[in-house]
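Figure 6 in text form: structure in, sequence out.
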C-alpha cells in the first residue's frame, strides 16, 4: 500500500474557503480557476490509482474546525481508505489549548499546520514571517509536541535558518517540511542557496521532508528540472525522513497525477521507494506499517 502524504479535498457547499473562491485573483501557484470546484475523495482516489491511504492537509478554510469535522466525516464514510489529517491552529492564540482539545477529539487528527511562508511576493503582505519572532508561536510549537501532535512546516528557503534556531529548542516536536522547503528560485544560484539553507533543517533529526508541490514554482517542470531537488532531499534527509505528496488538486494545474508519480519513481532509488512512497508517512502520521509496494 502506498501513501500520499500531502493532498487536499474540498466541498464548496460544506466548507467556505475564501482564498479558493476569490474571483480574478492570481496566486503564486498560478490561476486557480480550474480548481474552483468540488474536489472530493472519489475523484482523488481515481487520480491516485495505486495508492491506498493518504494525509489530508488543511487548506485555508474560514472555519478550521468545520473543515476538520468535514474531513472526519469523509474518513468515517470511507473506512476502506485510511486517512489522517493535519488541521489548522493558530499557535499564537490565547485559546490554543482549547482549540487543540477540540481538534483532538477527531480521531483522524495527527498534526497541525500554520504557514510561515508561501512565496516572497505573497508573504510581504501576509506578515507571517513575524511568527518566528513571536514567543507565543514558539510556545505553541512546544504545546503541539507535548500533545504528541506533529507540525507541518511550510516556509521559503530564506527562513530556514531562523526556523532551525526555533526548532532546535523543541527536539520532541516532530516536523514535516512541506514542499521540500519551497525552492522558488530555480536558477542554478537559487538551487545552490536552497540546498545550503535546507541543511539547516535536515540537520535536526525531528524534521522530515515532503517531496511535494514542486510544480507551484515551476509550472512547466520536467523530471530533469526537479532532479536536483529530489536528490538533495534524499541525500540530506535519507529515505527514512522523505515522503511523497501529490499536493493535489493544486498541482493538477500543471500535471496529471500519474506524470508526477512516474517522475518521482524514476528519481528515487529502488531501495528508497518503500520509505518514500509509504513507510515514512505511515510512521510519521501513525497510519500503520505499510505492508508493501503496489
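Output sequence:
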Amino acid at each position: 500500500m502506498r501513501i500520499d502524504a500531502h493532498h487536499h479535498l474540498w466541498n464548496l457547499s460544506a466548507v467556505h474557503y475564501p482564498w479558493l473562491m476569490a474571483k480574478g485573483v492570481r496566486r503564486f501557484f498560478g490561476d486557480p480557476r480550474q480548481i474552483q470546484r468540488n474536489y472530493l475523495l472519489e475523484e482523488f482516489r481515481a487520480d491516485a490509482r495505486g495508492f491506498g491511504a493518504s494525509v489530508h492537509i488543511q487548506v485555508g478554510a474560514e472555519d478550521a474546525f468545520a473543515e476538520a469535522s468535514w474531513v472526519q466525516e469523509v474518513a468515517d464514510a470511507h473506512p476502506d481508505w485510511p486517512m489522517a489529517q493535519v488541521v489548522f491552529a493558530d499557535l499564537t492564540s490565547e485559546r490554543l489549548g482549547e482549540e487543540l482539545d477540540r481538534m483532538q477529539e477527531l480521531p483522524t487528527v495527527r498534526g497541525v499546520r500554520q504557514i510561515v511562508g508561501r512565496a516572497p511576493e505573497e508573504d510581504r503582505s501576509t506578515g507571517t514571517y513575524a511568527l518566528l519572532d513571536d514567543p507565543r508561536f514558539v510556545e505553541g510549537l512546544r504545546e503541539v509536541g507535548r500533545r504528541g501532535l506533529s507540525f507541518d512546516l511550510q516556509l521559503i528557503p530564506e527562513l530556514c535558518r531562523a526556523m532551525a534556531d526555533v526548532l532546535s529548542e523543541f527536539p520532541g516536536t516532530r516536523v514535516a517540511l512541506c514542499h521540500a522547503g519551497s525552492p522558488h528560485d530555480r536558477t542554478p544560484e537559487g538551487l545552490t542557496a536552497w540546498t545550503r539553507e535546507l541543511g539547516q533543517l535536515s540537520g535536526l533529526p525531528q524534521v522530515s521532508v515532503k517531496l511535494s508541490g514542486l510544480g507551484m514554482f515551476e509550472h512547466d517542470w520536467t523530471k530533469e528540472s526537479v532532479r536536483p531537488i529530489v536528490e538533495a532531499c534524499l541525500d540530506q534527509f535519507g529515505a527514512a525522513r522523505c515522503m511523497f505528496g501529490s499536493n493535489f488538486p493544486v498541482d493538477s494545474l500543471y500535471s496529471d497525477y500519474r506524470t508526477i508519480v512516474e517522475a518521482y519513481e524514476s528519481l528515487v532509488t529502488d531501495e528508497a521507494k518503500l520509505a518514500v512512497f509509504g513507510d515514512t508517512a505511515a510512521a510519521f502520521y501513525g497510519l500503520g506499517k505499510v505492508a508493501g509496494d503496489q
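Caption detail: The longest strand covers residues 83-88.
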